[in-house]
Amino acid sequence: MFDNNVFKAGTCRNVTENGNTIGFQLETNITYYRGIPLSMVEYIRVAVDSVEIPTEDIRISVDENDWFTLKEAETVTSYKWEYGEPLYVRVLCEGGLSKGTHKVKLTVATRTAYIPVPLEGIKEREVVIQ
User: Fold this and answer.
1) DSSP string, 48-112
2) Is the pTM of this model over 0.90?
3) How confident is the model at residue 26 (pLDDT cuts 50, 70, 90)?
4) By CB distance 3.0 to 4.6 Å, which of 68, 113, 128, 129 could disulfide with 73?
């Protein structure tokens, strides 16, 4: 139902810091009609070419300045993921994605105030890394 909000088109790219490619990043929109604190992110899963990325290699941010592991995010109540604003999902992997075409699948689940089960959205896109 919310899959069209997950994995914004054209946002998957490699990330370079201090001249080194440290991984890749993509953006997602919330699968709910209002904002939530990061502590209400139930889980995020990323798969590249059908290979699941380990959870400990995933980081999230609402501002691209402060990054949290998914475990750390469980207690983060001071950062809010607002409706209409992206959540940045970064995968740490030395060298990032290789050049060429990849199938990247993003799964995002959030807890909400009025719904007793997490809302899950899944979107797979074919991305081209230059």
Assistant:
1) ETTEEPPGGGEEEESSSSS-EEHHHHTT--SSEE-TTSPEEEEEE-TT-SPSEEEEEEEEEEE--
2) yes
3) very high
4) 68
Residue 98, exposed/middle/buried by CB under 10 A (0-12, 13-18, 19+)? Answer: exposed
C-alpha–C-alpha distance, residues 74 and 37, integer Å: 9
CA dihedral of 68, 70, 73, 74, whole degrees rounded to 10 = -160
In tens, the pLDDT along 69-110 reads 999 999 999 999 999 999 999 999 999 999 999 999 999 999
Could you state, in order of their start, the residue ranges of all structural domains in the chain?
3-129
Tokens of 104: 């990247």
C-alpha torsion 34→114→107→69, nearest 10: 80
- Looking at domain 3-129, which CATH architecture does it have? Sandwich (2.60)
